[in-house]
Amino acid sequence: MAYFHGVYNSEQDTSLTVPIRGSAGIPVVFGTAPIHLAKNPAKAVNTPLLCYSFPECVQAAGYSDDFKNFTLCESMDASFRVFNVAPIILVNVLDPGKPAHVKTYEAENIPVRDGQAVYSKPYVLLDSLEVKNGETALAAETDYAAARDGDGNVVLLLLSETAKAAASLSVSAKGLNPAGVTKADIVGGVDTITGKETGLELVRQIYPKLGMVPGQLLAPGWSGDPVVAAALQAKTDAINGVFECTCLLDIPTEGENGAAVYTEVKTAKEKLGASSTHAAALWPMVVVGDKVYHYSAVFAALTAYTDASNGDVPYESPSNKDLRITATVLADGTEVVLDQQQANDMLNANGIITAINQEGFRSWGNSTAAYPATTDPKDRWLAVRRFFNWDGNNFIRTYFQKVDKPGNTRLIQSIVDSQNVIGNGYVARQYCAGYHTEFRSDDNDIVELMAGHLTVRTFLAPFIPAETIENIREYDVTALEAMLIGGA
Predict the structure, then answer these.
(1) Cα 55 to Cα 72: distance, rounded to the nearest angstrom
(2) Whether 314 contacts 390, CB under 8 Å
(3) For residue 246, what are the β-bridge partners?
(4) Whole-number Cα distances in Å, 459 to 4, 316, 391, 411
(5) Looking at residue 10, what is its pLDDT?
(6) Is the pLDDT of residue 325 over 90?
(7) What is the percentage of the chain residues whose pLDDT exceeds 70?
(8) How confident is the model at residue 15 (pLDDT cuts 50, 70, 90)?
């Protein structure tokens, strides 16, 4: 044993790594969560849940590695465990108030051992437990306390003498049924009687409730359905009547409308209906260790991380960035091995973003789902589209305070001057090649001015991703001649 005499130091690992934060690419994720594990399950249904850390996600919506049943957990894991970027907004549609979303477990006898009983039904909602000693009903927190063990079982710790005297307990409960959730739940709607919004209709509530503009909409495990894909694409435009964002669509890797090989992906994209200038189409799925993710969950985290690493300005493409994955796969686990030529010719050329292993797996592709049908730079390039969205959203939020003020030259000049100062900053930081705002008389005739309508015009040029870098090489005959003949 060492003999200590003096002054010593020791170290321990940092207990908390603070996630990098950004707002330009905030992922808003729709799907199912294990809310039976949440702190307050009743408050985790069809409402936007803003989370800045993994523990917040666990408290708000619960967490499970069972991504097939609980699709929101893919994004929780990708954002906080793979990229450690925040925040994220979760919308869980798994609703214990819907009969199709729950299972009823009939009463069964559970043996009591050492003052406790273990109830092993899946996804049990603790507030639905009915516990009896024979015909005598036992009360929670008085006769017993319910908790969960590491395997998800419900452990009933007996408190009262009445409960402890039992050799067995009669237990019944309700549990979540994620299989009962359908694409209609993800798309959601508005109750005509109560006005309650569900599913994707909740995009409208994010800015009024949270003061944040959605950056990316996604629904891992669901966006491969044409109905959900159409709804996601529709929700990216005119959010709250004014804002814009992008959405991420997973092209299926199985089924009648899916693509099991890269040559089928173009057709699968068309069947999915992925064509919006505000959408990114992704294929295939990805793996980290033994966890399989839909590509959208990881791509959203990568995009948010790229933005946050660049001063929260979405001017740089997430393409050719480290994906932090270990493989690309189909839904059944079959490995997909793409080389650069296959990714270029069959996927990127058709507006599909994929991943390649180029000394580590990298996201690969810069185009929106609208390509090749459109070649307009603001609609073809995902990075340019996102910069346009972000800049337009910022303009609305910045100058909303000016609305209803007297429409005089001072107001006009303050908007033009302020925006040009902002734009000059973008150019100086190399966020874009040019940016200027002006007030034109031909945009503001007397009829429009009398109607209280002022128009300014902004010209901006976000940089296009350097998708191709070519080196033209030529044999230098004169150098050879000079070396061998000229020096003789």
Answers:
(1) 14
(2) yes
(3) 216
(4) 71, 19, 11, 20
(5) 63
(6) yes
(7) 96
(8) very low
Tokens linked to 277: 């200038």
pLDDT tens sequence across 39-69: 999 899 999 999 999 999 999 999 999 999 9
Summarised one tens digit per residue, pLDDT across range 440-479 is 999 999 999 999 999 999 999 999 999 999 999 999 999 9
Kindly list the distances between the CA atom of residue 107 and the CA atoms of 117, 135, 145, 165, 170, in Å, as whole numbers in the listed order: 14, 12, 18, 19, 6
Per-residue burial over 10-48, b if 16 or more Cβ lie within 10 Å, else e, is eeeeeeeeebeebbbbbbbbbbbbbbbbbeebeebbbeb
**What is the token pair recorded at 416?**
């033009």
Three-state SS string over the chain comes to CCCCCCCCCCCCCCCCCCCEECCCCCEEEEECCCHHHCCCHHHCCCCCEEECCHHHHHHHHCCCCCCCCCCHHHHHHHHHHHCCEECEEEEECCCCCCHHHEEEEEEEEEECECCEEEECCCCECHHHCEEEECCEEECECCCEEEEECCCCCEEEEECCHHHHCCCEEEEEEEEECHHHCCHHHHHCCECCCCCCECHHHHHHHHHHHHCCCCCEEECCCCCCCHHHHHHHHHHCCCECCCECCEEEEECCCCCCCCCCCHHHHHHHHHHHCCCCCCEEEECCEEEECCEEECHHHHHHHHHHHHHHHCCCCCCCCCCCCECCCCEEECCCCCECCCCHHHHHHHHHHHCEEEEEECCCEEEECCECCCCCCCCCHHHHEHHHHHHHHHHHHHHHHHHHHHCCCCCCHHHHHHHHHHHHHHHHHHHHCCCEEEEEEECCHHHCCHHHHHCCCCCCEEEEEECCCCCCCCCCCCCCHHHHHHHHHHCC
Residues 102, 175 contacting (CB under 8 angstroms): yes
Is-contact 389 24, C-beta < 8 A? no
Tell me what pLDDT residue 21 has: 78
pTM (two decimals): 0.93
pLDDT in tens, 92-127: 999 999 999 999 999 999 999 988 999 999 999 999
Separation between Cα atoms, residue 417 and residue 403, nearest integer Å:
17
Q: What backbone phi and psi angles, to 5 degrees, belong to 51? A: -130, 135
Nearest to 78 by CA among 350, 282, 315: 282
CB 117 within 8 Å of CB 133: no
- For residue 162, the model assigns a pLDDT of 84
